[in-house]
Design brief:
Length: 514
Amino acid sequence: MSYRVLQAFICTILLLGGTLSATVNSNLVYAHNLAGQQLIQSTNQALPLVEPDYIYNQLYTMATRFQHRESGYDKQLSTSTNGHDEFANYWSQEILHDLQGFGSTAYRDNFHIRGWRDRPSTTPAANIEVTVPGAVHPEQVIIIGCHYDGMATSTQSANDDASGCAIELGIAKAMGAYWQQQHVAPQRTLRFVLFDTEEQGLYGSYHYVNATVNGDIKNIVAMFNEEQNGIAYPLRYLGQLQNALMPFYIELSPIAGPQREQIKQFRALMARAVPAVFQQIRALGLQSLTYHDRNKQDVAQPVFTPDQLSNVKQEDDQVGSSDQVPFTQAGIPCATFVGNSTYYDPDAPTASYPYDQPTDTIQLMNTFASGNSTKSAALTLALALPTMLTTWMLQQPSMLGETASNENPLIAISDINRIQTGQELLFSAQTNQLSTKNASLTYNWDFGDGKNASGLVVHHTYTTNGNYTLGLTVTSDHIVQRITKNLIVGTHNPIYPNQYDRYYATGIPPRIHW
């Protein structure tokens, strides 16, 4: 999340019209309990179970192994020189493993960028998308996104935004395990996205909205943006009891525009998510966390209690330069989860975390959380909170939802890019054979204009403006499945202007704190 365009985004928004008791210590003894099967049973309710230890370990691995993730310049360089491409490859393999058995597919979407000021890019940027097809409404899509690139001077970029990438993995692992254990599948299609070049001006997310899914905007139900996280509730700066609990922010789409009713319903659901997740965490056995008193002694304090709900701030989106911006412009309900981001504010407090600085490392995150660089329970739990909020929201029927699984393949139509009259379009089916009995599938397309085609991948050109129903019928000896999407074809379909083009950044943030 670049500091350079914080104020500009604010202007943009104005223009958009009886349980187990566990004391937690820095050795993370609770993390194993949180992942334990016996604690699932203790809640008497089936819930996706987030593994905090897994999220922390993935953050540590990705931040330390794949450094200097500068977009547009990784020409097969070593991971210690530029780990941009290797980070994306590792993340893709890990998330596909977490989601195996649910038809997940990965797509690398390359696009041109200009690079930093006075230093043109030498390679394309790339968004990475992993799709899990929905079993009931595969035409409807939920997007979970974050960015993986860093500033020109970055090292680990651990908080901003390897933390969000690790949270995405934690969500995928929790949902994949839950679906398998409960023998269910998602009703709607779920897409995990790594956006590139966020630090250079949100070019990855604008490319995604304007090119990759432009023809599919009306089919996107919601977007969750996992921004820089971990330096937030239930942390106290340096782990010291005399320091106040740090806030955690949920930045929500303002209620405005044609989708105001959908946004209002989304915000109401999010308001229910926070107390529900607090209750879930305490039901899993986590009821206290240790901090250091003035005598450097560990003192246990209650956490995730009803009186601490106010530490989670739900508000109209005030966060600039993050990847929810083009989705908000397009009228899609969005939630951005973010921790501390006050470092570049005038008169910023001492506890402000130096994101966008070379000092943004996992070791510094631990130090902010507990006073030393070793693995911190508070940091690990702070990473788990946005993960659990996201999984709770996904499970709701109006969001991703779930349905009883069967042996039929999961199928979705791939992203539909900008639909213009007279422009040839590519349509493809995203499918995975989940059973040998469906080994032979045929794909028949109805473009809604009297034309048809067959095949996994087809091309078509609409010659007249209008509203069309795109239909895909998938047939085998055992099943017939039909998917439809409503398409609006015109000469001038919406393109959402990137408000940050004029901020031609050098990639070098200020070196001093205000």
